[in-house]
Design a protein that fits this description.
The structure is a single chain. The chain is α/β, with parallel strands linked by helices and 178 residues long. It has two domains: 125 residues, Rossmann fold, CATH 3.40.50.1000; 41 residues, no CATH class. Strands 3-2-1-4-5-6 form a six-stranded parallel beta sheet. Helix 1 packs across helix 4 and helix 5 runs parallel beside helix 8. The protein is globular, with a radius of gyration of 16 Å. The model has no long low-confidence stretch (mean pLDDT 95).
């Protein structure tokens, strides 16, 4: 029997980009943003200096040094027992991130085969049974079943199944195979 497939986003789902972006933004601007203070805001409203954000996201080692989301490693390993797992990142917007993301995955998710890593532009072409992402712009075009991973910018979105953390992702997906 063929396993069902899952596309898993990197930034904001596997990697805690919020924490690192907040730290870099605060250091550069002198502001004191926190995860709590930006909850419910769009990315544009939370980080108003968009030129600075692009500079930060294009800086060497930004993506390579992102912290791993709690329980992500163990959860993805567990999901591989019942699903074919693909890591899918819209990385081409920030070309410097391509090699960094591959190296990051090699360090933290070495059990993901190279052929199951997709670095792309638009995710509209991804055709998996499930997609786990923090952005509606990706989930709204999902060909399978979308699962929204909670992030500061999507807490007010209610039109997708939501998972607040990796334990909830595993619970949602395990319901589909039992």
């Amino acid at each position: 029997m063929k396993k069902k497939s899952i596309a898993i986003d990197m930034d904001g789902v596997l990697a805690d980009i919020e924490l690192q972006l907040i730290e870099h933004y605060n250091k550069a601007t002198g502001k004191s943003l926190s995860k709590e203070s930006i909850e419910g805001l769009s990315e544009e409203d939370a980080f108003t200096d968009r030129t600075l954000v692009r500079e930060v996201l294009n800086a060497d080692n930004f993506f390579r040094t992102l912290p791993v989301m709690p329980d992500a490693i163990e959860s993805v390993r567990q999901l591989q027992e019942n699903f074919e797992v693909f890591i899918v990142s819209a990385a081409t917007e920030f070309p410097v991130s391509l090699a960094e993301k591959i190296a990051w995955l090699g360090e933290f998710f070495p059990f993901i085969k190279w052929e199951n890593i997709i670095l792309c532009g638009s995710k509209r072409i991804i055709n998996t049974d499930y997609m786990i992402d923090d952005h509606c712009k990706n989930l709204d075009y999902c060909m399978g079943k979308p699962i929204m991973f909670t992030a500061f910018h999507n807490v007010n979105q209610t039109h997708h199944i939501r998972a607040n953390n990796w334990k909830e992702v595993v619970a949602v997906l395990n319901q589909t195979v039992s």
